[in-house]
Amino acid sequence: MEAKAAQMLGFSTLIHYQGIERQSQGSVKLSRGFREPQKLQALVLQPARTSCSLRRAAPLEVACSCENLPDLTLDSRTFQAPLDEGLILKTKSQEIEPYLNGRCIYLVGMMGSGKTTVGKVLSQVLSYSFFDSDALVEEEVGGTSVADIFKHYGEGFFRDKESEVLRKLSLMHRLVISTGGGAVVRPINWNYMHKGVTVWLDVPLEALAQRIAAVGTNSRPLLHYEAGDAYTRALMRLSTLFEERGEAYANANARVSLENIAAKLGYEDVLALSPTAIAIEALEKIEGFLNGEGGHYAGC
Ligand SMILES: Nc1ncnc2c1ncn2[C@@H]1O[C@H](COP(=O)(O)OP(=O)(O)OP(=O)(O)O)[C@@H](O)[C@H]1O
Ligand SMILES: O=C(O)C1=C[C@@H](O)[C@@H](O)[C@H](O)C1
User: Fold this and answer.
1) Contact 15/42 with Cβ under 8 angstroms?
2) Domain boundaries 86-292, corresponding CATH code
3) Ligand 1 centre and the CA of 215: distance in Å?
């Protein structure tokens, strides 16, 4: 099945993870089976803990170490595998979709963590509908923006509306929901969200601050205080919020750490990760959760 998948994805070579030695970041040594440097378009397969899983091929520097051949290091750019993330995403979503049984996916995470961006990708690939709970609150309050709701009615009023929106959503199926960054603070909201599968997008605060500084804080009232440049302001406020909420996010069924994805794929900067790469990781983590639920899902 793995060979078929590699062929389907257009890779000429399939390398099992056990057959390579990691040299340094982004570089591997092929320990057997490669007699000479070849023009590889390699798919590296790394068995996931719970089921076989297609790993994205990171840029590879290939070194040959067969008998009679000196180790050779080849230019990683020459051997960078084409990355059909879209196809991997589709394959993974088709694998797990039946086991979700229509349960909704709730994305939780700090402001700017990508819940909306990644949520839309997930909803599309799972053929689910997408909802943003902040947008639903705005509708409930006659089209008033979140910033104006905070300003005119206060945070408590907003939180009540948010809980009401989550209660209504918990009665529905086949939705991906981007929740408000603070939805995790009220225990009652977890009662609603745990009707589905909850996924925490865990993004380093510095990266969040960079994203938020780029778009401004006007629509994010809880970030709209401190003096200083936009990045420092956002970082200070995010740090305080995260101290209050870190534990609450950890209630989610699955944690998607952008730092972990970046390390796996050989990126130095989490901001370089595409929404698709993050969505693939989210599906893999959801798969892990479904596996742990009591053997309902055995993967491939
Ligand atoms: N993987 C990504 N690559 C590039 N830009 C991204 C990525 N994820 C999110 N962004 C950008 O970061 C900003 C915040 O993302 P998004 O609105 O999806 O986050 P959010 O978690 O829904 O935020 P909030 O809770 O504040 O509504 C947006 O400008 C979005 O385009
Ligand atoms: O982190 C938060 O508390 C918030 C995040 C946004 O999504 C909005 O729900 C609102 O601005 C509050």
Assistant:
1) yes
2) 3.40.50.300
3) 10
